[in-house]
Amino acid sequence: MSVRMLAVHYPDWPVAAAGAAAELPAAVLAAGRVVAATPAARALGIGPGLRRREAQARCPGIVLEPDDPGRSARVFEPLVVAVESVIPGVEVRGPGECVVPIRGAARYFGGEEAAVGEVRRALAVAWPAADRLAGQAGAESARALPRCGIGVADGPFAAGVAARTDIVVPPAGTAAFLAPLPVDLLDDDALVDLLRRLGLVTLGSFAALPAADVAARFGPAGGWAHRLARGADPRLAVARERPVDLGVVTAFDPPAERAEQGAFAARRLAEQAHDLLRAHGLACTGIRIEADTDGGESHGRTWRHDGPLSAAAITDRVRWQLDGWLIGIEVARPTAGLVRLRVEPVGLLPADGRQLGLWGEPGAAAGRVARALTRVQGLLGPDAVLTAVPAGGRDPADRIRLVPWGEPRVGTGLDQPWPGVLPAPAPTLVHRPPLAASVLDADGEPVGVSARCALTAPPARLAIGPGSLMAVTGWTGPWPVDERWWETDARRRARFQLSVEEGQAYLLAVASGCWWVEASYD
Amino acid sequence: MALAALQEVARGPARRAGDVRLLPVVSALAAILPEAGLRRGTTVGVSGSASLLLTLLSGPSQAGAWCAVVGFAQLGLLAAAATGIALERLALIPGPGPRGPVVVAALLAAMDIVVVCPPARSRPADGRRLTARARERGTGLVAVGDWEAADLRVTAVERRWEGLGAGHGQVRAANLLVEVSGRGAARRPRRAWLSGTGEPLPSAAPDLGEAGAARIRPIEVA
Q1: Is the pTM of this model over 0.90?
Q2: Domain segments of chain B: what residues?
Q3: Which of the listed residues A355, A391, A432, B151 has the most CB atoms within 10 Å of its CB?
Q4: Assigned CATH topology for domain B21-152
Q5: Per-residue confidence at A242, pLDDT binned at 50, 70, 90?
């Protein structure tokens, strides 16, 4: 038994979401092919599946936009909310398409036609909001209401088909409604192709086959398609989760200029946010803190944590962030007092409690350290506290990746070979940027390296920057390194190791006739 | 010689094995440090060599200590990993800026060892305050360079990076002559040669001719 469903269908939604006006030719492309076109473009023979070049040949002035499913969903959201305001339990089935069970609403509004009218009115009211989301910069006038199909039938599949033709199929009339329609409506290209070759071009002819034979010949997927073609679609709409706003806001009047003023608000906000999360059975692993100032600036920063945050931990982070903003370094400090503070939990996960390790893992020390380091991040910014991760590379500097504390420690390129990597031991000081140096031979002339990597003379003295000359006791090289020669940031160098009388050794590189100390063995 | 060995046993690490206030160090440094380890709450001034600093940190880090390095952007972290420092327990704050003392004070409350590289124009009062805080919190404070408030000074008075000839070879290992001096038990300076792996060299090593170099093990890479 199928449930009566109402479906809303916007034809060519991706192009409507891209902000194109219906009376101008425009199309949305994915992988070089048209996926949606405006009515004006359709009139010129541009439809889904057409290649970019053919579309441009048919209409040289056509506006082509890349496909952006995120944008399509974003622009559709106000319309979904509009449908939801009339009938609850909306399931979004794709960009520009949603279904909702209509039985209760039909009784409430006094008939399916009346319910359809209500939905259509709500969609028309919500269109300007959606249009604003789609609106491109420079579009002055609002676009006209796009064509929108609303259909009612038994089951989501038939309702979706009815929405394309904008009709209300009477109860129990679904099979008769589907029968003359082509099999192409089934969303299974391989099956449709096969049915066509078997001579079954309409849903009715496919539905007329015995169900057992269809299941034997076409398997479960074919059996499912057969049920759809018969108008027996047992699916219920899976009501979408209504997004809940878990953010909490407070306003300061007068504006908060000092960190102490914010401290009390921080505690209250953190507890509110935590209570709200708990009411939804959720926990968060991060929070986003946003502040607006009296001067109209807005500041925001996200704090992440490798575990659920308690109310006290949220309080600490809000307080540290306020400290950082209000007594922090000059560049990051707001120019005026804070008037509004918002805390929003991010990284939500079910609050299923947290069991600490029996042997102190992650452990008391780790927790204490994490707290201190987060505090320092609050003082200096999240990028000021780093942790080193081994990575792949040729230079000592490349072989360490520095990631902000608290982010995942992932090295890159470790599994690749690095021919020409500097042999162990690694230098104990790495100079970034490298220090300028001069290398002289026994006669006091600068030492150079030819294009064929030949030294003009053995190095005898080394001076780093403006420092004094040091006598070279040992040297080796040149070791040519030619990195990323296929890119614009290509580096071609010859590396040397030099030891001096004072006892240190240096890793030098000569590039374009200049000597640089890249690292020191100290 | 026998007397020296007896003294070693009397003062050796065995007697203090259960002392949780002592952070373990590599054997070569243990031989010359006054308590055969790094006492929590002391301030150590390390100067003369970055590899000496890494060697000093490697013992505690391997034993599970959390370390932070403040204001030392050039430190070779690949060398740190090769020396045995656990990078996942090493936090780096390369540019603390003018709020350095506040940052170090916050870290001293949580870390086991905090390495600071004092900027050239740091105030002596800040240094004394941090030393006092380290003592109060029981955290090892390691200052790079001359730090007047240090309880213990560990200095590389001589260093030799071996392995390079005239146009051949490659840098292989460091040999450091380390001197420990300071207050109390460390008033009499003690010296030892240290090889790249943190192991003591035989006492005959100071004359590092061809024979000396041959005995040196290269640093292993992690």
Answers
A1: no
A2: 21-152, 154-214
A3: B151
A4: Rossmann fold (3.40.50)
A5: low
